[in-house]
Amino acid sequence: MALIKKPVTGMKDVLPAEMQLRDYVIGVIKETYARYGFTSIDTPCVESLANLNSKQGGDNEKLIFKIMKRGEKLRLAEAKEENDLTDSGLRYDLTVPLVRFYANHANELPSPFKALQMGYVWRADRPQKGRYRQFMQCDIDILGEPSNLAEIELILATTSTLGKLGFKGFQIRINDRRILKDMAAYAGFSEESYDSVFITVDKMDKIGLEGVEAELIENGYSKESVDKYLGLFKGLEVNKGIEGLKFLAETLGDFLEADAKLNLEEIISSVDANKAAEFEIVFDPTLVRGMSYYTGTIFEIAMPQYGGSCGGGGRYDKMVGKFLGQETPACGFSIGFERIIMIMMDEGFKVPGVADKTAYLIEKGISGQMLSDILGQAQEARKNGEQILVVRMNKNKKFQKQALEEQGYNNFKEFYKNPLN
Amino acid sequence: MALIKKPVTGMKDVLPAEMQLRDYVIGVIKETYARYGFTSIDTPCVESLANLNSKQGGDNEKLIFKIMKRGEKLRLAEAKEENDLTDSGLRYDLTVPLVRFYANHANELPSPFKALQMGYVWRADRPQKGRYRQFMQCDIDILGEPSNLAEIELILATTSTLGKLGFKGFQIRINDRRILKDMAAYAGFSEESYDSVFITVDKMDKIGLEGVEAELIENGYSKESVDKYLGLFKGLEVNKGIEGLKFLAETLGDFLEADAKLNLEEIISSVDANKAAEFEIVFDPTLVRGMSYYTGTIFEIAMPQYGGSCGGGGRYDKMVGKFLGQETPACGFSIGFERIIMIMMDEGFKVPGVADKTAYLIEKGISGQMLSDILGQAQEARKNGEQILVVRMNKNKKFQKQALEEQGYNNFKEFYKNPLN
């Protein structure tokens, strides 16, 4: 039989050690968000292509694994193009399914609706180290809360979760799409050019002020606008964090929406006052976040020591309305689950577990009543919360014990057919 | 925008109340099996079609959701048949992936390998009440243990899990494929006819002795063989349980493999002596279990009060060898996760949770420092393990509180902009 032992291209098997960590992290996430009143939901891994292609997914829409129609619906001979053969696919994120879920069940759900969704998503990306075609996403959203109570609670809950997982010294970088726009307007860019300008600003981390300047000029923007724009960022390099907001207020004048400034000030000071983990929250005027659906606050978890972002999110007040036909304010956070797992694995994180893990080594040939009596002991210990593994003794007992120690067994009991052995 | 609110045909959204139960059951399963030394693993939801179609899946192979090739690999114009367009699909069970996983990683895994795998599987079945095209499977397997230590531990762990979930008064029905064959041989059926005969015997529960007799005659078997065969089952109706094994030994003589009889006797007495839940384990000579890969012991969880089986499994000593090229004894149990969830929902099972669930109702317009102070109180309570939901107060406060009570909130705190209110 020609059997393929490897998983399909770009997807991976999860071995016990990693799975134990994944289960632990999932448990901490679920427990922590529950403390904040979030409830878990689940949606099918398969979505209709009509929804997946509704322009909310950006470039991910090009990476869909499509599922073939079946039976009579599959008309191969008549098919002219791919989409004649398929009408569903694997989800590439949890946002489209969440919004569909909310549109489908709004009447049965509390308002605001605080949802936690963890599940696999699939993207036909070119496989590369640490990047898989099937990976876990972890999204936390508040639908129906217009004020920044949503942002504050999302950030407090998420950072509290990270803290419980042992992370510290990270940053929450925060900005507001409205401030990004106000700055561009002040510099004289036209509204149609904002998206293109922001794509360049988004690279500030990598290419620096000079790189951004060069790229904007190269993209054909006037020297005057670029100078004025870059002047703001130079000023913001001196006036860091919350000082930056004051600097913008003074410099931009009426161009700066007072609401947007107040929004960030309130979020930053409330998070700072009430945080339950060691991190700092900073205003970052270069933060853009790729997806076009964001309408207000945007934020990101930055862990520079681990090479970048471990999640992010923001407010997307228009998207649910497009699906539901009724405006619904929304704000969400997506935790970079796979990245966090990778970091914890690399750091050799030890999952807290049962303290007493005992292996019973029983001689080959032990059976019947004798086996039953041994299992009785094991059952008794398990009732008391111990972890008991009952295995046959190998010829090379020393080697076997070493292997079991690597699996975390710290006690051994040996059983022989003839107890005098 | 034409958005589809419903999930795709035959799949379902999971609302918070059900999700809470599912998470709870998953937690109890993972914790209980860990006590028995099982470790969790995970495999991709997508498998190569070559593996899915390797004849281990029986009729499920007809129900595969196939995934279209992408990019250059998809040659629509040249495609003559379905399989020219696809080389992978969604898994229909967890057994094929487990065996592939084991073949791929045998060198990195302990022996015996005690695996727990929970995950979604997909079957393009005709949708019907309580039966979905995406559903959770929960498989527990021991690879590499030839003796009935595997069967006994699997049954003890599984029944202990069911007990912790509140199930009692159920039955574990057990049989051995070898005894089924010995009985058929004694009656004079030819070896080629066994599978067909067992399909009829499998209906004993529904059509009774007379129905089985009629169907066997109708299928062309000799009256002599049918009479002799039915005689055995009549004798077994009088000699129930372990007595049935003695009756078979006396009646079948050399036709009955002594090993098979001893195997069941040992399992039944050891499980009886060490069980950690209220159930009975009984020898059931009519138990067949559909899949052709079983080689020895077979068993099933019977809950007649809930209309049938809630899981089952058995020994399949030949299957891993076919994939790995090296014989590996194997024994597994599959828990009917979705059925168990459905029963617990129907019975109104209350998920044990946080005792103190408090909702803070805050007046609309509370923001800034005042909001921050309230969140400070919430953070303090959460640190102490309480669940705190912070929501805006609605105009109809009474209605809002009722709704929150239904979500399990039993304490309320109200906050007003003007504290004198």
Automatic annotation (TrEMBL), chains A, B:
GO cellular component terms given for this protein: cytoplasm
GO BP annotations of the record are: histidyl-tRNA aminoacylation
- An example Pfam family from this entry, by short name, is tRNA-synt_His
EC no. given is: 6.1.1.21
Report the InterPro entries cross-referenced here.
aa-tRNA-synth_II, aa-tRNA-synth_II/BPL/LPL, His-tRNA-ligase, HisRS-like_core, HisRS/HisZ
Supply the alphabetized keyword list.
Answer: ATP-binding, Ligase, Nucleotide-binding, Protein biosynthesis
Q: What residues does L-histidine bind to?
A: 93-95, 123, 137, 141, 289, 293-294
- Is Ligase found in the keyword set? yes
Report domain Aminoacyl-transfer RNA synthetases class-II family profile positions. Answer: 10-352
Keyword hit for Protein biosynthesis: yes
Please report which protein family the annotation says this sequence is part of.
Belongs to the class-II aminoacyl-tRNA synthetase family.
NCBIfam families, per this entry? hisS (TIGR00442)
User: What's this protein's name?
Assistant: Histidine--tRNA ligase
Species this protein is from: Butyrivibrio fibrisolvens
